[in-house]
């Protein structure tokens, strides 16, 4: 029997900082409006031609591999979580395998949006627990900025999202009291359209339809979010899935050393913190600097927390996410 543990972490964000004031030059918004509703002060956007979802993932992966103290050829499997792949197909997992020069291992792409990294960690964890693989590279990477409606029409969504990538190396841990203790995954597809990007898609509007209509007012290829509805569901599901993980392991909120929530909205994180009675030093948030980087948000935040000395041996670390699908999940880790 094995557990899996996180042996190395890394993240990468583009150097290009986009402030709320910068966005106010493009749309009818302002710094106070954005901060009040989301907690976001700035985010990173790639400069066209300098980064892609894959290249950001590769940069984060190289750091994680180095910190894990392994060689790239020690990696047995790749799991890549994103909603913004370089190509419609193939997915970025195989591009990472190519760009890192890794031998012909399997590469799996995960499409679970904001909960993508939690789902990807769960997949990697099960492969290691089963004994199938020893070292799995898990990446969450997003390039949102090229696909956002940067006008007043799209401001409710476009001010939220940023670009970036995070990565983790999961490896075998023979001490089953340490590492990833459990993962918990859920979905509720009846609300799929409440946070979605409808086109291009085979079921609605494909690329040929969009080109044929040439309609500048077609909003189907921009992200849509029913913000209040998403918020109400998020705070419930976050609480449920965190408690599910704690109870599974005979733990309580008092045992949490650090909660790293998906960085969807600072108000959601603050609501969960208050509900569980956690101190500021027990919750790590960085949405103020990076916005919502979807599948990349948890690995970026976890890496920053680890670099800042907020994650130490023996700590109970909880990862939790909720997002489009709806999908949500948690990971309970004894560091």
TrEMBL record:
Top-level enzyme category: transferase
Cytoplasm recorded as keyword: yes
Listed Gene3D superfamilies: 3.40.47.10
Compartment(s): Cytoplasm
Location of the region described as ACP-binding in the Swiss-Prot/TrEMBL record: 263-267
Pathway the protein contributes to: Lipid metabolism; fatty acid biosynthesis
Keywords on record: Acyltransferase, Cytoplasm, Fatty acid biosynthesis, Fatty acid metabolism, Lipid biosynthesis, Lipid metabolism, Multifunctional enzyme, Transferase
GO molecular function: 3-oxoacyl-[acyl-carrier-protein] synthase activity; beta-ketoacyl-acyl-carrier-protein synthase III activity
Entry's family note: Belongs to the thiolase-like superfamily. FabH family.
HAMAP family: FabH
Function according to Swiss-Prot or TrEMBL: Catalyzes the condensation reaction of fatty acid synthesis by the addition to an acyl acceptor of two carbons from malonyl-ACP. Catalyzes the first condensation reaction which initiates fatty acid synthesis and may therefore play a role in governing the total rate of fatty acid production. Possesses both acetoacetyl-ACP synthase and acetyl transacylase activities. Its substrate specificity determines the biosynthesis of branched-chain and/or straight-chain of fatty acids.
NCBIfam families in the cross-refs: fabH (TIGR00747), PRK09352.1 (NF006829)
Protein name per Swiss-Prot or TrEMBL: Beta-ketoacyl-[acyl-carrier-protein] synthase III
Phylogenetic placement of the source organism: Bacteria, Pseudomonadati, Bacteroidota, Flavobacteriia, Flavobacteriales
Gene responsible for this protein: fabH
